[in-house]
Amino acid sequence: MARATMAPVLTDMPLEQLRSHRSAHRDPEGLTGFWDSTLAQARAAGGEVRLVPQPTPLTSVDVYDVTFPGFEGQPIRAWLRVPAGAVEAAERTGRGLATVVQFVGYGGGRGEPADDLLFASCGFAHLHVDTRGQGSTWSRGATPDVGTEDPASHGAQFPGVMTRGITSPETSYYRRLFTDAARAVDAARTLAVVDAGRVAVYGGSQGGAMAIAAGGLVPDVGAVVAHVPFLCDIRRSMTITDADPFHELVRYLAVHRDEVDAVHRTLDHVDGVGFARRGRAPARFTAALMDAVVPPSGPFAAYAEWGGGDPSVHKEIEVWPYNGHEGGGSVDEVAAVEFFSRHLG
């Protein structure tokens, strides 16, 4: 007889309640100004977007090693993957491609040049953005988190990045990371191979949180896809799961008992629900009912707020009732291609 294993269970509300769930998150005073000034500073810092051809054995896809300016102009790495010959064709004709800017899940980086070939194989330009200070857990990264001159950004933290600079919105790790996400869209739009009017953002888990943030901070993106997005409805999520990364916050506060208010204030500045209220692009979300890493009330909360109540904004959510954090896997990836094809033209 096969050995018994622990079966996954529902981690949150029943589906009927999730569909009517609304987050208790309230945007902190000055949130719009905080992010507008952060992006203005990053853009004012300048910096070049550099492409270096990357030799690979691939015959149908060309790969370029990209460096672009992120938070405070700090260099961020990425891979650009395009159909073979697309860069030369765009330079010759002046016509760029519909483009997907992809962000990476927690602990991962941009990986290897020949990874993640789906979007380029389907005719898109694909900018696969590295994750500062991560990229050593399940896929390799190449971008350090140099932080800021403020020593608080390098203060005490629980291992991982959730609590890096957590006592202030100004020093929060996610201020830097979400600025990188917005600046990745800016960088993509400077490339001849990219049609600047047809740029979408995409990611799963932490990458989904970055896609939501980029969609809120750069509201004229063409489309957003966020699979099982992390960092939504944060205060609720961190109290209903004991799985990392949310539980990093709990363990930090169990030691730093006097910092609860400061930590909550910081988290309120980076909650996906707040970014969703600013988003206007067509958006696709997914949620998995047996997901212990990202309780599904988080993705549902961001989905409910997407578009800020504007009924003309297209949004949809796919639910995987018997899956955990893997969600729909490759089924979701193909659905993302179809969604982008419809909305980018």
Biggest sheet: strands, sense, closure? 9 strands, mixed
Q: Which strand order spans the largest sheet, edge to edge or round the barrel?
A: 1-2-3-5-4-6-7-8-9
- Show unreliable segments: 1-5
Structural class: alpha/beta
Counted by DSSP, the helix tally is 12
Distance between the termini: 53 Å
State the shape.
globular
* Helix content class: 25-40%
- The percent range for strand residues is 15-25%
| Number of separate strands | 9
How many whole angstroms does the radius of gyration measure?
19 Å
SSE ordering: HHEEEHEHEHEHEHHHHEHEH
Mean pLDDT: 94
Can you walk me through this structure?
The protein is of the alpha/beta class. Helix content is 34%, strand content 18%. The protein contains twelve helices and nine strands. The chain has helices spanning 15-20, 31-44, 86-93, 118-121, 173-189, 206-217, 234-240, 246-255, 260-268, 272-276, 297-305, 330-344, and strands at 50-54, 61-69, 75-83, 97-103, 125-129, 194-204, 223-227, 283-288, 315-320. A nine-stranded mixed β-sheet has the order 1-2-3-5-4-6-7-8-9, sandwiched between helices. β1 and β2 (61-69) form a beta hairpin. α2 (31-44) crosses α5 and α7 packs across α8 (246-255). The longest helix has 17 residues, at 173-189. The radius of gyration is 19 Å and the shape is globular. The termini are far apart. The model is unreliable at 1-5 (pLDDT under 50).
